[in-house]
Amino acid sequence: MTLKKWAVILGGSKGLGLATAKKLAEHGYSLLILHRDRKTDLPAIEKEFESIRTNISELHSFNADAINPDKRQELVREIQDILGEGERIHVLVHSIAKGNLKPMLPSSGNILGHQDFAITLNAMALSLYDWVQEIIKAGINDKDMRIVSFTSEGNTKAISGYGAVSAAKATLEAITRNMAVELAPLGIKVNCIQAGVTETDSFRVIPNSEQIKEHAQKRNPFNRLTTPEDVANVVYLLSRDEARWITGSIIKVDGGESLR
Fold first, then answer.
1. Distance between CA 136 and CA 229 in Å, rounded?
2. Residue 182, class by beta-carbon neighbours within 10 Å (0-12 exposed, 13-18 middle, 19+ buried)?
3. How far apart are CA 138 and CA 64, in angstroms?
C-alpha cells in the first residue's frame, strides 16, 4: 500500500498559502487546508479548492479559528482521523496573516496598543510553535517533516503602521532558528522564507501599499514584484529530499529586491 504524502497549510485559502497548496498538489501531496474566512468569500474559495481537487486524491479544508487553543486541539484530532494507517504530516506551512496595522502616533485613527501587539504576535508567530507542538504531541509528525513559514523585509526595516507585524516577523524568525536546533533530534527541518513584495490581499491593506509596491519594482533587478507562485516554488523545493540538509535558514525569495 502506498502511503499518501500529507501537507498541512495554515492560512491556505488565499495568497502565498493558496499558491503553495496548488504547487504541492501538482507534486502529489494530499492537503489539509485551514483558513478563516467570511461566508461571503467561501464560494470563491471553494471554487479554488475544487480546481485543486481535480489533480489530487484528497483535499480537506477547515474554515475554523486555527489560533484558538481548544479549536486547534480539535482540528488536530480531526486530522488524526483523516490520516491513513502509517501516514504522517510531511510538510507544515504557516501562512496566517492576521495582524494589526496601526500607527504609533494618533495622527490617524487608533494608536497601536499592547493588545494589538499580543494579537499579532500570537497569530503570526506563536501559533506556528503551538501547531508544531500539537502535531508532535499527537505523534503525527513525519520523521523528516519540513516546516516553512513566511517573513518579510519588515523584519528589519521600519514601515509606518507595520510595527506589530514587524515584531511578529522577528519573533517568527527567532522561533524558526530555535526549533531548527531543538527539534533536530526528531528529524524535523524548519525554515522561513523572506518573500519580496507580493501583491496579495494582506499586502494591499498595509498603509501606503501602492508606494511600497512602486518602490519595490524600481529596486528589483528584474523590474517586477514577487508572485505567490515564486514563493510556492521554493516551498516545494524545501519539501524535496535534496533539501533535507537545509534548516534554520531565512531564505530570501525576492529576485534580488533586497539587494538595493
1. 29
2. exposed
3. 19
Residue 248, by phi and psi: left (phi above 0), alpha (psi -120 to 50) or beta?
Answer: left
pLDDT in tens, 154-193: 888 888 888 999 999 999 999 999 999 999 999 999 999 9
Half-sphere exposure of 2 (CA within 13 A, CB side): 6
φ and ψ at residue 54, rounded to 5 degrees: -70, -15
* DSSP conformation class of 198: B
Contacts of 191 (CB under 8 A, 6+ apart): 146, 147, 148, 176, 180, 238, 246, 247, 248, 249, 250, 251
The DSSP annotation for 164-194 comes to HHHHHHHHHHHHHHHHHHHTGGGT-EEEEEE
Give the DSSP H or E segment for 109: none
What is the percent of the chain with per-residue pLDDT over 70, rounded to a whole number? Answer: 98
Q: Show the cell assigned to 67.
A: 489560533
Give the chain's domains with CATH numbers: 5-254 (3.40.50.720)
pLDDT-based confidence at residue 205 (cuts at 50, 70, 90): confident
Residues 6+ apart with CB under 8 A from 212: 159, 197, 206
pTM of this prediction exceeds 0.90: yes
Rounded CA-CA distance 247/190 in Å is 5
As given in the structure block, the three cell numbers for residue 153 are 523585509
